[in-house]
Design goal:
By secondary structure, the chain is an alpha/beta fold. Helices cover about 35% and strands about 15% of the residues. It has a single domain, classed as Rossmann fold (3-Layer(aba) Sandwich), CATH 3.40.50. Bound molecules: fructose -6-phosphate (F6R).
């Protein structure tokens, strides 16, 4: 299957060669400008391909972008009725109507504002009785549409993408994971305390995310400065799953000045460092 073939180019062994792409890094004045830029990028992709398969993050980073996107979609009368939307990740062990589900956040933050109904969405169920089966069904659904046309991601404080926690190799499939202490702490701000954050989750796999034809990584805020540098300039390694974005084409990292910092970014590390041991 052609969309999957690209995964082979970033397998741990192949990655230690020359397969490194320059990450397209856009730096905007502030979060508002970041959101406008990102929303316009997403809108262009939808206009070009109204049946696009897109995977959407929750978290705080993309929410203003989704608002901007909803405004553009309304103003320009863009057809979103044929989009296929995929949930990026979900906590495990919550009832479907629990206020903390990421799907609930997705509905409030992006689906409802865009007028996208549940029937257009492939979900990762928070109440999955068989997480392995749910993961396989999700992978099958992505395969059925030929892979993601667009992936809209945020950057975890530990370099996770979705809930692909470190270490996650490029080949990590959709699966159930245990959240790291860092993710639990950072997710605590969403729900009023770390003790309210579930300890396990389902995540779309690195295999699917790294095969996306376009990726937008949204990185606002000074608290992301160090992990942004590591992601775009550090070694490509499972210890920083987002660093694999250096190894695929079609990636745009959109950061604001606060996240980018004032000092010039260091030169990229030698391609593939740390990957061979994965
Ligand atoms: C959310 C998700 C996470 C977040 C990341 C950044 O669906 O998949 O990977 O994108 O933790 O979170 P924020 O944007 O809140 O800083």
């Amino acid at each position: 299957m052609s969309w999957r073939r690209r995964i082979a180019t970033i397998s741990p062994i192949a990655c230690s060669g020359t397969r490194r792409f320059d990450v397209d890094l856009i730096v905007t004045e502030d979060d508002a400008a970041l959101s406008r830029f990102a929303a316009n990028q997403i809108a262009e992709i939808i206009v070009a391909r109204p049946t696009a398969a897109i995977v959407l993050a929750t978290g705080s980073s993309p929410m203003a972008t989704y608002q901007e996107l909803a405004a553009i979609v309304g103003r320009e009368r863009i057809d979103v009725s044929r989009l296929r939307v995929f949930q990026l990740d979900e906590y495990l062990g919550l009832a479907a109507d629990d206020r903390r589900t990421l799907y609930g956040w997705m509905r409030r933050g992006v689906l409802a504002p865009l007028g996208i109904g549940d029937e257009q969405v492939v979900r990762l169920p928070s109440d999955a009785a068989d997480p392995e089966l749910a993961s396989q069904q999700y992978e099958d659904a992505v395969a059925a549409v030929g892979g993601f046309d667009l992936s809209v991601l945020g950057l975890g404080p530990n370099g996770h993408l979705g809930f692909n926690e470190p270490p996650s190799p490029a080949t990590a499939p959709t699966r159930a994971v245990s959240l790291t202490a860092e993710s639990i702490a950072s997710n605590g701000r969403y729900w009023g305390g770390a003790e309210l954050v579930p300890r396990a989750a389902l995540t779309a796999g690195m295999d699917l995310l790294l095969a996306a034809r376009r990726t937008l990584l949204l990185v606002p805020g000074a608290h992301k400065r160090a992990i942004l540098q590591t992601t775009v300039r550090g070694p490509i390694t499972p210890e920083v799953p987002a660093s694999f974005l250096q190894a695929i084409p079609g990636v745009t990292v959109i950061a604001d000045r606060a996240a980018r910092g004032e000092a010039p970014l260091p030169e990229p590390a030698a391609a593939g460092v740390g990957v061979g041991a994965a």
